[in-house]
# Entry
Amino acid sequence: MTIAPLIQAGVLDSPILELGWLDIALAAGLILMAAGLSRWQGVGLTKAVMIGAVRAVLQLVLVGYVLIYIFQLDKWYLVLAALLVMLGMATREAVARQVKRSAVLTGIVGGAMLVGSVLTLIYVSAVVRMEPWYNPRYLIPLFGMIAGNAMNAAALAAERLVSEIDARRGEIEAYLALGATPAFATREAVRRAIRASMIPMVNSLTVVGVVALPGMMTGQILAGVSPLTAVRYQILVMFMLMAAVAVTGTLVTLQFRKTFFTPADQLQ
Amino acid sequence: MAAFTLSDVCRNFDGIEILDHLSLEIPERQFTAVIGPSGSGKTSLLRLLNRLDEPTGGTIHYLGQPVAGFPVRQLRARVGFVFQTPVMFSGTVRDNLTVASGIAGIQEGNGDQRMRESLRLAEVSPDLLDRDAARLSVGQKQRVCIARTLMTGPETLLLDEPTASLDPETADKLVRTIAQLSGLNGVTIVSATHRLAEAKRMSSYVVMLDGGSLVEAGPTAEIFERSEHPRIRSFLESVT
# Structure
């Protein structure tokens, strides 16, 4: 669907409302408002809000230039390198949130996110018939969304599994003492960890369009894309994210569970 | 024949020596009481026998074979473990027993028969079968734990202070049940306890630990009546 009829009908006045740097500087007033509220109530986040805003501006501007560069060069290896950097950063962030950090956990989270992201991305690439297969205009933003959500799923799964196994130590050892496998003994802890990793995405699916308009869809509409096209993309994105979250959360939980046991099925 | 033979067994945790070069034998088809003050290593010893933990040194043999030589799940099905605090799995008493029979790989037709037998041996009323396990009294839970462990058909039962949280009357009844398992059914019992009167009355063999070391081991009558070991005498005097 094109937007021309909508423009003619006056539904959309113009395809894009251009934002200049002066507009952005004026928008910074919103940050000052948030920082001011924090200071007024002694929340202790004034500095964090200001630093966060500066970081967001710098990071986004830098990413904008990097994306322009990658789009212009249009090389598959540059696209893959960008995806790997994003994956590495997401892995680091997911592991940094854990109380029990280790090189093994980093490997598990990175591997699970890689499998979850790549599988989903291949599926989506086939659905949208991406040409060429590495088209950075599609691949990078889609991967960014996948990595962000997979990161949350991985962090939630690992965190929940640790707390479930700690809380269920007696029950797990009672199963092991009967001769059960570690997989059987921890099935309830595993179930709860996977569930915890999937719940935020399931909630998003439930309320999308009703309580919240997702950022990508809002962005597309603001950029002049027909709402129906934006909606179709958003549906695709939500399905893609649900799959990536489920695969990543499940893989992290199942692989991480193994690290709690010795080869003689003893809970460490 | 000895059920368990420990040779120079050590268990170290976070740099602390919990069991210190233990060498002893635990007889087969008898009721062995493991006694000693808190922190003497009773629980740690039992956990090694079921391979819930690994010794940091020495060797443990079960019926003449190294425990590490058994497939670990088979060993645990043969050497059952009842914990100090009864842990109920979710669901009814029947669910708890069914889970154990599933783990042991008992055919569905034989499961009911094994269930009846386990309930009888642990003296659990069949009326409790469809009750929510979490809502039972502590004494009932401990008996269900014993019945659940019996579902795997163990030759040996390790009990870690099974009467610790029970009132004296309930504890006495439970210990009699456990003693019957050994006396009438030929199950090897190894029970950690701090109740000396209980150990003296019910057990036929005693192992005394202190500070992770073996103080003395032998037939109950000998240990309680004839031992001249100063640590045994002082322990016995402190609790009688």
Summary: Confidence is low (pLDDT under 50) at residues 6-13 of chain A. Chain A touches chain B through 18 residues (CB under 8 Å).
